[in-house]
Amino acid sequence: MPDERIGHQQVDRVLDGFFTAAKERAERISPSYLSLWETLEKSTVGGKRLRPQIVMTAYTHLGGTDLEAAARVGAAFELLHTALIVHDDVIDLDFVRRGQDNVSGVYRRMAETAGEPAEVARHRGLSVGIIAGDLALTGAFRMLDSVSTDPMTREILAGILDEAVFASAGGELIDVDFSFAAGSPPLAEILDMERLKTAVYSFEAPLRAGAVLAGAGTEVASALGRFGRDIGIAYQLVDDLLGVFGNESATGKSSMGDLREGKRTVLIAYAAQTAGWPELSGIIGRPDMAPEDADRARRILVDCGARQYAQDLAANFASSARSYLECAEVPAGLAAVLDDVVSASVNRGR
Question: SUPFAM superfamilies attached here (predicted)?
Fold first, then answer.
């Protein structure tokens, strides 16, 4: 397998080319459109390139040699990730990502600087966020269409990317529906939502895409998909823990946002079945939540066992994911690298 940094650099070169061409087109329309593309491009900088890395890891360990083609598939998943987080921030009314203004935040601030009222500036920011997410989403499919491969493989890859979008949208809708429901939904429904919203496009689909591009058999692609499902759920469980207990300077996101939103996570689903729920339910879900209220909510989540339960569940899904790497169809080298992915996914924030 090539050095991981080489794969990262190759994906960056592909994305640079994509944004350069887009900015040239946008400049012919208007300066403001060029500015939007520049802002969208900046929003992709600083990410871990997790999904492209997963594509290229599967591809190279399964015998693939066309790194340019793999980088383009990886870049398509990175653009999809960009689209989904831009739209997710709009849905959550968030204006910060990775510790700085996101796309909506940039345009809200521009409107505020121009003297617009707060509500007008907020609306402008969210509106541009929708536009930017749309551009990244269509860009993902355009990027995939540029991959040099045979027509049948390209069609299968397009189906994998389409399923990733379809599943993620379904998971996002379920998550939105949860926010309007009284009480907390059952644990199984939350886990299914997290699989649809995160695991499919972040792990299942990139692994399958790398395998398909390399010409691997269906048994390998299926095993990797099952691995991706379980490690994706474990990854999201850890993300939910970090969203409440994480260090903001390390995670780049607020540790009060999920509590203020009253987001229905496994933490909340477990707590809803305990004696701590009456007090906790009166604290979370309030936009005006004070830091001391958030501290009290965290103490309740610890005392009622919700934090430990979520940690144990993440470890169980990680263990299940590892079990899918033990089949004969998955090469030992690939299994070893993916085992490292498991460790990195569940040990974030420690």
Answer: Terpenoid synthases
